[in-house]
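thought: fold this chain, then report.
action: predict
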Amino acid sequence: MVGRINSLVGGAVTGAVITHFAVQGIFNPNMPDPAFAPILSNTIAASVVFWIVSIVFFDWVVQNTGKTMFSAMVIALSQILLVDFNYVLIGRREMYPALISVGVLLVAWAAVAFVYDKLSKES
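observation:
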């Protein structure tokens, strides 16, 4: 894992930046106020924690499959199916915010895979 530190940090920073701005600027304005208080009220701190856990998981998947973009798309599509698709079906999310979320997830994970892959080849 130490030898992959550039790709780990690069992938995490890429995902964090894209999702932070897309969620704050595009997704959240289309959602109602949360029904409960967040565990971490600071969105940047919450994003850092999320991306540390996510990029370590992503790295583990990539190391086991050897396929960076495939791994990223499996993670993105899993998130889409488990949250957006399911929530639309059960009435917890409207279609428009779900479609925005789908776009954010696909772009963010594709960018994470691209940056991770480029940085891992430089190591």
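thought: worth noting. The CA atoms of residues 61 and 67 lie 8 Å apart.
final: tokens above.
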